[in-house]
Every structure is written in C-alpha cells, then in structure tokens.
C-alpha cells in the first residue's frame, strides 16, 4: 500500500509533469472506483492542472482555467481530482499513451487522463488484485471527500510538534500500533511505516499509547519524523516505476520475517491478523519476549 513517503514522491513527480498542462480527455473505466458523479469526470476536460498536492495518503489534482461548471451546473472554475490508491492502486506516467480509447473491464486500468499537450502524454490509474478499494473523487473542495475531512495532522507538518503529539496520546486508550495507523489521529502512516517507526523507537506495537512516559513519547515522536523524512529522501527524484521497489528495499523490519534485525541481529518475527500482519524485533522492541501470533495478541508472560 502506498503510504505518505510514496504519495509525497508521486506528488512531486506529477506536479512537475502536469502543472500548466490542460486535460484533453478523461476515460473513467472502473465504475467501482468512482465515488462521485457530480461533477462528472468529463468536467475536467479543457481545464489546466494548477497544482498536485497531498492530504495524508490522498492525491489532490487541482484543475481550473475555464468555467468548470459549463454543462455541469456549476459556477466554480476549479475542480479537484482526488485519488486514494488504497492497497493495490498506482499511477503510471506515459509520454505516449495508445491512440485508441481504452476499453472498460480490460486489465487493471481504472482511469486514464490524456493531456492536450504534449500530444499523447498522460497518466493511468491502475489497481491490481481482486480487492477493489481504489477511490476516485471529482469535487469542488477536497474537504467534500469524507476521508480527507476526517484526517488527523500531517506528521511532516511544522505544527506536528512534540506538544501536539503528546496531546494526541493523552486521548488514546489503545495500543500504539493501532493509533499510528489511524488516519483520523495521524495522516499518512500505514502498516509498513508504523512497523518501521516502532522499531526505530524501540517500542512494542502493543504498548498502550496512554502509558508512554515523557521519554518514550519524545523518542516515538522523533522516530516518526526521522523515519518518514528518510523514506521521502530515498525516493526523491526516482521514476514512478521504481518507487515500490525502493520502499521495499528501505524497510528494516516490515516484510522481513525470519531475517536478521539490522540493528541487533535477532530474528525478525511476525504477528498475523485476518487481513494484515506486523513485523518486529524482540530484542529491540519487547525485551526479548516474543509476541503471541494470534489476533488480539498480548506479550507472553
């Protein structure tokens, strides 16, 4: 699943390639991915991309330049194409898209946006696998997207201070792993980077968030910032096709069950759930004690 660092890199790449260019055609190909119908996807055609920004894991393409309401019953001149890539979505840039219009239901292609210039350039939004969770919204205000409206603070923002983070912890009555992944608490962190952050902070994923000491809180806050910023820097400037591979190669514990911990050499272990798993190092994070590999696991006594 693309998380904050990958979406941040996508944002930079797409802004560089799209801003100032107009939309020639929009091809919505997967009905399940379209979460809005007014304005319709075709309302983007003829508009100019003004910016590409990020809200947590959401991509926000802002387009304007003419009356976006022409034929759509709206007087606004600005629209937002908001995309959440979910677990298996991705964006593929192409300098020469096929000339023939794409056909719905063929392969992973969910949305195609063709630019007016340079001719043939544009991007595809794809989703692999059978679990279809990709979400595409076309709105006049990104706050109209429920997932954006409920987002917590961005951990890379200047306002995400130790004091602000401490206040968030004081509201929590659950384990720290679940808190880090909750987009309504902190925006942009998913399963992979929450594992990486907790490893860097030398903290059990099942430690209650409200029980953290001042020292532990400061350590976790620092690990959030350093882990995410380092991941962003590693992926900066890479072609889109290389971002997924870079993410995997840069992870120290997530997805590395059975491998040696790069810090202490202990074997990385896993706890499996119904639809996901977490990885951790017993020596670095749980005082050498393994976690029971079952749902709602607790430290073995």
UniProtKB/TrEMBL annotation:
Record bears the keyword DNA-binding: yes
Keywords associated with the record: DNA damage, DNA repair, DNA-binding, Glycosidase, Hydrolase, Lyase, Metal-binding, Multifunctional enzyme, Zinc, Zinc-finger
Annotated PANTHER family: FORMAMIDOPYRIMIDINE-DNA GLYCOSYLASE
Family named by the database record: Belongs to the FPG family.
Name listed for the protein in its UniProt record: Fpg/Nei family DNA glycosylase
SMART domains the record matches: Fapy_DNA_glyco, H2TH
Domain Formamidopyrimidine-DNA glycosylase catalytic as annotated: residue spans: 2-106
Domain FPG-type: 252-286
One Pfam family, short name: H2TH
Catalytic activity from the UniProt record: Hydrolysis of DNA containing ring-opened 7-methylguanine residues, releasing 2,6-diamino-4-hydroxy-5-(N-methyl)formamidopyrimidine
Cofactor (UniProt): Zn(2+)
Gene source species: Streptacidiphilus alkalitolerans
PROSITE patterns noted in UniProt: FPG_CAT (PS51068), ZF_FPG_2 (PS51066)
Coiled coil (residue ranges): none
């Amino acid at each position: 699943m693309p998380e904050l660092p990958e979406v941040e890199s996508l944002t930079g790449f797409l802004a560089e390639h799209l801003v100032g260019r107009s939309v020639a055609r929009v091809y919505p190909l997967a009905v399940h991915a379209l979460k809005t119908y007014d304005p319709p996807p075709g309302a983007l055609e003829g508009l100019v991309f003004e910016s590409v920004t990020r809200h947590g894991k959401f991509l926000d393409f802002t387009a304007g330049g003419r009356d976006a309401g022409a034929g759509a019953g709206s007087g606004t001149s600005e629209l937002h194409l908001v995309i959440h890539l979910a677990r298996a979505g991705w964006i593929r840039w192409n300098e020469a898209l096929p000339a023939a219009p794409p056909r719905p239901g063929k392969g992973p292609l969910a949305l195609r946006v063709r630019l007016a210039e340079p001719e043939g350039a544009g991007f595809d939004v794809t989703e692999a696998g059978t679990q279809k969770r990709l979400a595409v919204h076309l709105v006049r205000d990104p706050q109209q997207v429920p997932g954006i409206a409920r987002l917590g603070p961005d951990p890379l923002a200047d306002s995400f201070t130790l004091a602000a983070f401490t206040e968030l912890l004081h509201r929590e009555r659950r384990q720290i792993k679940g808190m880090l992944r909750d987009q309504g608490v902190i925006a942009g962190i998913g399963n992979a980077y929450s594992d990486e952050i907790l490893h860097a902070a030398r903290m059990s994923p099942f430690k209650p968030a409200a029980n953290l000491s001042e020292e532990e809180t400061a350590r976790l806050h620092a690990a959030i910032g350093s882990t995410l910023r380092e991941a962003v820097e590693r992926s900066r400037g890479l072609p889109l096709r290389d971002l997924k591979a870079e993410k995997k190669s840069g992870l120290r514990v997530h997805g590395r069950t059975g491998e040696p911990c790069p810090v202490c050499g202990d074997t990385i272990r896993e706890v499996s759930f119904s639809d996901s798993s977490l990885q951790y190092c017993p020596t670095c994070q749980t005082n050498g004690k393994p976690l029971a590999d079952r749902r709602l696991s607790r430290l073995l006594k």
